[in-house]
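Hi there. Long-time user, first ticket. I'm pasting a complex I've been working with (about 728 residues overall). I'd like to know whether the download I got is complete or cut off, because the file seemed smaller than I expected. Thanks.
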Amino acid sequence: MTAPLLALDGVALGYGGDVVLADISLEIHAGELVAFVGKNGAGKSTLLAALLGTLAPLAGTKRGAPRVGYAPQRGELDPVFPFLAHEVVAMGLIGRGRRSRRDERRLVAAALATAGLTSETDVPFRDLSGGQRQRAMIARALVAEPELLILDEPTNDLDVQGQAEVVALLTALHAGGTTIVLVSHVLELVHRTAERVGVLTDGRLSFVEPSELADESRRAALLGLTLPKSA
Amino acid sequence: MNDVLTTLASFAPNYLATLALGAVCAYLGIFTILRRIVFTGAALAQAAAAGVAASFWLAALPGAPVVLLGRFGATIGSIGASVLAALALARSPRRGRSTPDAKVGVVFAAASALSVLFVWRSSSGLVELKNILAGDVLLSSSSDLTSLWFGVVGVALLHAFLRRRFLLVAYDAAFARAQGLNVVVLEQVFLASLAIAVALALRAAGLMLVFGTLVLPPLVGLIVAPTLFRATLVAIGSAWTASLVGFCVATHYNLPVAPSIVAAQLALLGLSPFAGRALEFLTLAGGAAALALGLALPAFAAERVERATPTIAGSPAPANGHQHADPRQRAFDERVAMLANLSLPEDVRVRAAADLERLGDLNAIRPLLEATGDPHLALVERARQAVVALAGRGTAAGTEELRALATGPDRELATLAARALAELDPAQALPLLVERLADPSVPLLLRDDIHTYLASRDPDSPTGYDAFALPEENAAALAAWRAWAKGDASDPPRQQN
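Hi, the file is complete. Here it is re-exported in full:
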């Protein structure tokens, strides 16, 4: 078996000495699509920060440092900025080494094509539909040709059409060999796309098969949810 | 039209500085509006004003390095205070229940209060502060304009290297962090660049013009243009167009320049929702014309300088009636004329005294000394501070000039010179001042003022002198003062006025 792209061994994560997640062990292998789920406050963002390298472990070891492309939650972007779609995508090259303008244009065009946004290159980002905006953000994460793509709630606040577009894009990327880690509370997305699912409950991580999320009561038990009693 | 051009040519450095200020503030204003930190810009400007006020407060302390503070204090104070405020306001991990907005409010309130408290007991400081808040770019000294240009070039270079990173941090901090950028440091560097630009622009043009340019032209750009690049061009074009229109209107109708420019900026903003692409074209063309005119003005000035005399609000023609080709000499003549013009408002004359100090020409010592005999306290205080700063600066030539005037034949001027010399060389000046108490050719009020000053230096000084009494009634007191001068004059002052 090949070495994992990224691995955490007995890692504790937290802020200012307070442990949020304890004894986390996981491996991400090339070509995988791994999803993490959990209730609000379960530590999904903390785990993402560790995978992104913006949060150092309090204990344990982290192995591997792949080039990471990241698509944060779409709702955090301020629509007042008058950026065009290609300008947003080009932001993915900032901090990733010097390139000629020509190279930059080529990479941006390729990323937009991958996301199916070639005809929207010069459209203001704020004028794109929700699904198109999310795809543009995935293109931004892809533009620097990362080894690992990390997505935070990629279908949040999207209508059915938008969700379908994003699912189709993720499926295509995964089929093309892209390694993907995503965090989502939309279990339908996780069930349909992920190969492995990491469940965060009570500060711990456990892995389950995606099919286990299909059953409502099993899902509730995994996530520690309390289902309302039927009348 | 020729009159307008001639006047513009007379103030070519000020006009070009307005264009520089317009470019840097409009460019940075795009960031401040997009990031919703307009109030931060106001707080930084207020912090810069507090820094200037602090320099005046320090200069008034006993034993303070008056010369050093007079020369560099205001600039260092304004930059230092605004950069400190910027660092305090930079994005940082949130602690407690405070919000970023509340932090800006705290800085603004603190800076506003400190600005007034620092200068409350210094009447000239109050006038200086008022000048900073209201401002007039025409009265900017060459050193202020030079500092502004250095600031503009510095900010331009910094943003040429880091603009994309600043934009990314402003737009999507989480993504920037994931890209490996140090968001906190970039935030601090951006706000520091904003603080330096605002502080230097404030010294050159006043709060009204700086804050107006930070908000109005960028808004025009963001309303009219569909992309960030074009919005930035339109913002700078609007600022330059408004500068040209404002200068021309102010010149033609004898109005103050800063509010005229801001009014032109407001007019462009008023047109922006309706004019669209036409306004984009208009502002770009207007900006290009304003820049072309600015570049052509020095040549025009050289051609016209022998024939023309500038006339603009608050700046009368030189007292000696002839015009100099050297802008520095012209500025000197204008300030001297303003200082001596009793019909001008006191704050304009105070500003002229400050400008003469900044110009650094020792020939200003005499007219400044004459101004220390003025009935207006703020002018007296500022003019004396300027004399002390000029005379104590660098070479000994200034002090020698002051010594020569203190022992010259004009008794009133000699008394005023001795009074200023007392700040630099009390051993020589105090005996001279004591002798003036007995000199009937010195005006009564001036003798009374000198007596008050001498008494303030020493709580144990002789009593019984009355400037309004007959000479024989003061004989004993004068003898006591002469004895005091022999024993005390070489001691360091216990209390300065």
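A couple of notes from our side: Residues 308-325, 490-497 of chain B have pLDDT under 50 and may be disordered. Chain B touches chain A through 23 residues (CB under 8 Å).
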